[in-house]
Amino acid sequence: MGEDCKGACGPLTILPLIPSLKETMDAEIYVVGDIHGCLDDLERLLDEVQPDLSRHKLLFVGDYIDRGPQSKGVVDYILRLRKLYPPENIICLKGNHEAMLLDFLQGREIEMFLFNGGLGTIEDYWGTGWEKLGEWVLPPEHEKFYQELKSLYEAPGYIFVHGGLMPGVPLGEQQEEDLLWIRGEFITSAEDFGGKVIFGHTPFSRPLVMPNKIGIDTGCVYGNFLTCLKLPEEEFFFTGQGLSAAR
Is the pTM of this model over 0.70? Predict the structure, then answer.
């Protein structure tokens, strides 16, 4: 499966699902992996899962955009959810691709954004003539969405982040660069981070389940499937082209 230019991951063993401590949570949390513009898969997944978002929470681990066919459409869909349900129940984390988009809008790291699949997102917003524009301005709702993305979210027994955590660094001292981009040091670490870490960013053919972490980027945009993890039950839901091969 593909990955971003700032890191690489080696072969990993998928461990059996272990029982969680089931700490008291005030609501179920449904966590969705990296979407990357795959709006149809996202809609099918949530239609299947049917979370009650008037009472429970839906959390996205980031990377809504790039590579897939409907980056802007994914953000539009999430914004509609926030209008239909209490907005505090729709939690959106920042991924490294959203960080690259924000850099692009400031005229920084344009080549890196394009190299990592940003062209489709750019053309979604500004068309094929985007290079001729004097500036690139997002629709106001989308600008607010990207600017307000969280780097980290905590719930009893769990820590949610896009890329992972730097081992040996207290949670309050983690750097955003690591939260969005880290791979190997985090994935191979057996450290107790103070809660089971739920993350995306690094694609796996199946969810990665370890005693201290669960990785839910299952490479939907690369032809595999999109994953939703229900907490605290730690139950998985999937949708996408790769399901027939996975069964």
Answer: yes
**Looking at 8-17, 104-113, 231-240, which range is the least confident one?**
8-17
What single letter denotes the amino acid at residue 235?
E
Please give, one letter per residue, the 3-state secondary structure of 16-64.
Answer: CCCCCCCCCCCCCEEEECCCCCCHHHHHHHHHHHCCCCCCCEEEECCCC
pLDDT digits (tens, 9 = 90+) for 161-181: 999 999 999 999 999 999 999
Query: At residue 66, what is the residue type?
Result: D
Q: What is the CATH number of the domain that holds 213?
A: 3.60.21.10
Question: Could you tell me if residue 9 is inside a domain?
Answer: no
User: How far apart are the C-alpha atoms of 198 and 84, rounded to whole Å?
Assistant: 26
CA distances from 98 to 2, 24, 43, 79 (A): 18, 32, 21, 16
What are 107's strand-pairing partners? none
Write out the two tokens for 238: 């999937």
